[in-house]
Amino acid sequence: MSNNFARRVRKMADDTVVNTLKLASQPGIISLGGGLPNPDLFPVEFIRETVDRLIKENSHQVLQYGPTPGLPVLRASIASYLSQKWGRAVKPEQVLITTGSQQALDLVGKAFLDKSDWVLVENPSYLAALLAFNGYEVKYDTLQLKPGGIDSGELEKKLRSGKKYQFAYFIPTFQNPTGVTWNESVRRQTLALAKQHGLMIIEDDPYGELYFQSVPPASLAALDQGNTVIYLGTFSKTFCPGLRVGYLVADENTVATLTLIKQAMDLHSPSLSQALVAEYLQDQKTYHDQMEKIRVFYREKVRFMMKEMEKQFKNVASWTKPAGGLFTWMTVPGIDSRTFYHEAIKAGVSFMPGYPFYANRPDYSTLRLTFATVGEEQMKIALERLKRLIKRS
Ligand SMILES: Cc1ncc(COP(=O)(O)O)c(C=O)c1O
Q1: CA of 337 to the centre of ligand 1 (A)
Q2: CA of 101 to the centre of ligand 1 (A)
Q3: Same domain, 89 and 28
Q4: Measured from the CA of 237, which atom of ligand 1 is nearest?
Q5: What is the pLDDT of the chain when averaged over all its residues?
Q6: What total number of domains does the chain contain?
């Protein structure tokens, strides 16, 4: 049967990463590798009571098929939330509910990418977005990611070269994998260049609300006065990922066409999950308290990790100091993370090797670490193990 797989599957079904990460599930290994939010933060009581009430009061709707673009109440809540946050009107018709933002990535791929088209991405970029776009057999051009964002001079040069990019895919805030945030001037320059050259931007923003201290610069979508940016949001990090509720914001016509494509994918996203998220957004006190709890929790986690990293790796590695999100990105000169990973597993610690996050020219000396899930004692042990290994290599 495997002979029957479509040609595109070859690019999608590279199991190196999956096989690599499987090793981390052995007992005794402390994992700094996953990208999961901490499950202790899930508002379990709120969810239990709300689901119970929704089913008692409204089972005919929340357990039934629903409209493809999403439950009207949720689209309206998101539109109103974004209008306030962005300082410009967003209509419910501009919001398409998706099954996580991962579906939105596949959806924009299906809608805009033909075989051999060019996509512009940060280097490194989000691995699963590259996997989604790979399914459309595209080619990548990359912009090196630096501490304050991409280099807008490099962007301008690429856009002036005349190469046609179907879209650029960017994660400007607390990026996965690096934790880097673009500064405001890079955002403004990028948007101006995109407008000038007719470049469409897909802005993926799962972490924007997970800031530790100060609110990050406005999103590209908030700054966009026209139709340059398609914005992807999700409730995976601000509520629970298992509900699989994300959303996409674009002009009404684009949303109408994307809705037809989504219909063929899954008819609609889960009704009960959507109704639950709508209740969460409308209950402003619960939402506000929960977001505060999440921010304080990760702020303490990152503070501890940064302090320990400073102690352990000061002279042997460099790493990013994220102002939000879930990750830090570490560069250890001289290592090759493909082999170093296996040594780390033997030593009882795992991380996410950095190379699969590069669309082109991987840097094998990079690793992604998360501070989200392990406790302080375990974190300390994991980083000590890592340090011993680095010293040996
Ligand atoms: C940058 C980025 N985009 C998209 C996603 C997918 O999120 P969702 O759970 O909404 O599908 C993730 C998840 O980790 C992510 O880091």
Answers
A1: 23
A2: 6
A3: no
A4: 9
A5: 95
A6: 2
Task: Write the CATH number for 212.
Answer: 3.40.640.10
Q: Are residues 325 and 214 in the same domain?
A: no
Are 293 and 276 within one domain?
A: no
The ligand 1 site (C-beta within 6 Å) comprises 35, 100-102, 126, 171, 176, 204, 206, 234, 236, 241, 246
Atom in ligand 1 nearest the alpha carbon of residue 103: 11
What is the 334 CA–ligand 1 centroid distance (Å)? 31
Q: pLDDT, tens digit, for every residue of 235-278?
A: 999 999 999 999 999 999 999 999 999 999 999 999 999 999 99
Dump pLDDT digits (tens) for 180-230.
Answer: 999 999 999 999 999 999 999 999 999 999 999 999 999 999 999 889 999
Rounded to an integer, the average pLDDT of 283-292 is 94
pLDDT in tens, 341-376: 999 999 999 999 999 999 999 999 999 999 999 999
Q: Work out whether the CA dihedral 299, 304, 310, 313 comes out positive or negative.
A: negative
Asked if pLDDT for residue 13 goes beyond 70, the answer is no
Distance between Cα 391 and ligand 1 center (Å) = 34
* 57-65, Cβ contacts within 8 angstroms, sequence gap of 24 or more: 58/275, 61/271, 61/275, 62/271, 62/272, 62/275, 63/271, 63/272, 64/271, 65/267, 65/268, 65/271
Bridge partner list, 231:
203, 249
**Maximal CA-CA distance, the chain:** 63
Nearest residue CA, atom 14 of ligand 1? 35
From the CA of 314, how far away is ligand 1's center (Å)?
A: 31
